[in-house]
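Worked Example 4.2. Read the sequence first, then its structure tokens.
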Amino acid sequence: MFLSWACQQGGGTVLQGLALRNRPTVTLSQGLHDAATPGNLLPRRAQSSAFLEVRRTFFGRLELTTRGRWEGRRFDDLANTVPLGGYFLLDFLAHASLGGGWSLEGRFTNALGRNYHTAAAIDSPPVSSYYNQPGRELDLTVRYRFEASHSGRT
């Protein structure tokens, strides 16, 4: 199923996109502008970005997911004087149902080890310093889910 959308929010922000659901998920958005400052981008919002997620289930118990996220160049301030570079992140996720309420989950995030920034420090101008984001990470989780017992109470 394809879904194409466009909407106008207060203040002149225009959102446009395309989404594909019930299969690999693709979401694209473009065109975030602030009418109060014509020609400038909203702070920390890229003019273009994209998100791609491909998810596949095997044997009804194992789910593997690959996610890619791209953010274009953006600015930290309304005047568009403090630049924030674009970035691409690639993540891998796995979830296995082990039965009896047990599951095993794994995440390998920022698999390419990208160094990227989502915000500048408060005292940035004229020298830019940025808040660092996590590098490559590997997480493993063992989870037990308690099922509600049916004791016959109403």
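Now turn to a second chain, presented in exactly the same format:
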Amino acid sequence: MKAAYLYLCLIASVLCGCSADKPKPPRDLIPEDQYIHILVEYEMVQSFEFMHGDSVNVRQLVDSVMQHYGVSRKQFERSHNFYQQDVQAQKERYKKALETLRQEMVRMEDQRNKKDGGTEADTTATPDSLDHSTQ
């Protein structure tokens, strides 16, 4: 989870340096709240590839995330390209994404402590482990 957090921070800082002409919103633009949820899971999956070098499983996990939210990769890419054009707003979206990750880490730690009585356990998150009830 720490790697996912660091990866999101890196992405957010990279976006601060990007600038381009603002495109028109795609007609299939993903609503912002849903986009943030997808972004969290997408970045977690990407950090899995970074940490484990397993691009085959990453593609399957990304497909699973997109299917869960009922969007295509292309739709996500179009929405992501549109949203990242407004750097300040995208920074705020990443802040929300980081807060979501923080809350998830706390939830997972609480579950782990209840299950293991406070002993060390694996807290690796997968896209399916995230709470989708806030969609």
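Notes for the reader: The chain has a mean pLDDT of 80. Residues 1-13+29-109 form one domain.
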